[in-house]
Fold this sequence. Notes:
Layout: H1 5-11, H2 13-17, H3 27-38, H4 41-46, H5 50-54, H6 57-84, H7 88-99, H8 107-119, H9 126-135, H10 141-152, H11 157-169, H12 176-189, H13 192-204, H14 211-223, H15 227-236, H16 242-254, H17 258-269, H18 279-292, H19 295-307, H20 314-326, H21 330-339, H22 345-357, H23 361-373, H24 380-393, H25 396-410, H26 416-428, H27 432-441, H28 448-460, H29 464-476, H30 482-494, H31 498-511, E1 519-524, E2 527-532, H32 541-557, H33 573-576, H34 584-595, E3 602-606, H35 612-624, E4 629-632, E5 637-641, E6 644-645
Parallel strand pairs: 3-4
Antiparallel strand pairs: 1-2, 1-3, 4-5, 5-6
The protein binds zinc ion (2 copies).
The site of one zinc ion has 6 residues, from helix 35.
Amino acid sequence: MTAMSQPLRSNCSHLKDHNISSTRFSTSLASLFKTWSDQPLVRHSLNHNPTTLNSPQPHHQQNQTKLISYTQTRKESLLSLIKSCTHKPHLLQIHAHIVGSSLILDSTVCFQFLSLISLSPPLKNLTYSRQFFDQIPKPNAIHYNTMIRAYSMSDFPEEGIYMYRDLRRRGLGGNPLTLSFVIKCCVRVKNLLGGIQVQARIVRDGHQSDSRLLTTLMDLYSICGKDDDACKLFDEIPHRDTVAWNVLISCCLHNSRSRDALGLFDIMQSETYRCQPDDVTCLLMLQACANLNALEFGERVHKYIEEHGYIGASKLCNSLITMYSRCGCLDNAYEVFKGMQGKNVVSWSAMIIGLAVNGYGREAIEAFREMQRTGVLPDEQTFTGVLSACSHCGLVDEAMNIFDRMSKEFGVVPNVHHYGCLVDLLGRAGRLDQAYQLIMSMDIKPDSKIWRTLLGACKIHNHDTLGERVFGHLMELKAQEAGDYVLLMNIYSSAGNWEKLAEVRKFLKEKAIQTTPGCSTIILKGTVHEFLVDDVSHPRKDEIYKMLDEINSQLKIAGYVADVSSELHNMGDEEKGYALSYHSEKLAIAFGVLATPPGTTIRVAKNLRTCVDCHNFAMILSGVYNRKIIVRDRTRFHHFWEGSCSCNGYW
Length: 651
Ligand SMILES: [Zn+2]
Ligand SMILES: [Zn+2]
């Protein structure tokens, strides 16, 4: 080896760890390295042999040609070694020879080696890559690109942005690829400002019609909540491929526009755009369907997945299970689960959570046991599912036992969701003080959701003093939402504490706090019908209200008494006059009865917790009209059938 390799080698900790000379060389490496050490080519090419100076020209040229071809062969052998390298000791030997020879000056060799150590598993190591990069005497844009790309996929994306700045400082131009990788880094850290600077560069360098670049930039705008800017960029993309459409769809999903996301599925395939959805599009669509309770649409996407041969992808199957469960269609979820090859922990968890939220607690616990029998190890998500299953069945002891085994046996540290399930469970069982003590004893900081769960339990059990205390904790977290005030008012109202109720109402009025309006949706033949309280905007409003009158008189015969005074949905209720008020889910259900043939299941999604009166209404209606009604409210599912509900009256 040449003398110059010594200081370089000692700079590199990876090389220091391995005694190169004592490492046994593989046969191919050994023969190659032997040739190199026998022929110190650096000296050859730099210092001409004095004898050749006097030699006639043809001989000298011959030597030159020989040298060039020899260098070329040596480089090619090394490149093929880099390509086939899979072991760390070999890697370190190659590294030593690159830095110890003239090949450190060769941009292709450096690029290949850098790609190997920064991008290709299993030898990928970013710290090591950075050390090698720093050894390259004159890195070019391609070397920078490799590093920025590696950072964009790593846990240190901001490093990629620093590298990009360094590249610019060195006066290297960079190319569209550089820009695309640096935007990806910006996406990872949500650095909008950085992205805007890169956009200016895109325009300056004349790349504004580069579809890929614009698509990546669109992703950044979407992630940073600038959906209008993202849409504007989409319009500017000259060739909108599936990736661009997918970014637009996920932009809608990020910004709670699931309905728009669904619409894009057909638009992208229309005559005008002729763009085929791919597996990623399907994943996004399933997510939108799950958000909207859009079962029919979900079934269409399922069919598309089967027709296009994506059904083998476990990610898609897992999403199908989640979509069907979230649409309250457990049979279909189970069908997909049953047909899956190689069920992983995500698949099992999706199924267990699906069973649990739909009220099939015992089946969920059985699935959990089956999962362990098949040798799949449960993770955090699985435990959230199985604990909430216990909660739905009121299995306090079983839950405590599982909670105990969770960390001891499976090494899963309980998170706030796991504690949330226990609080829900204790709340259901009326053990409110124990639930409160559990929250206070947690190692982790309680979040607003867990306090809200307990607040809900205080409402069910008319516990106004604890309710007040819990509300205090929510205020401490500055997390109290308008809905929590409504819950507190309901607690006071159930406990008959009218004085306090009036106080809260006055406070809300003074502060002009607005409650989220209740909104229910029902999807018929692919169209989403949305209802607010006392909504009169639906084109079939007259028929709907007529149907509601008819339902009310039918239900009265069956013993239904409108219970509108026991619960408030928002602060305006009192002023509006209870008797005339129709909550959004009643309107949606009435529309379902009106617009679908007898016996059809009615599926409604509601953004808030459903009230006692609407719950009774749906329960009795399911018996009288012989209809299955599935209502997904803010936290759980209610499967109404034959006059009862799967939640057993707890929600
Ligand atoms: Zn209601
Ligand atoms: Zn229910």
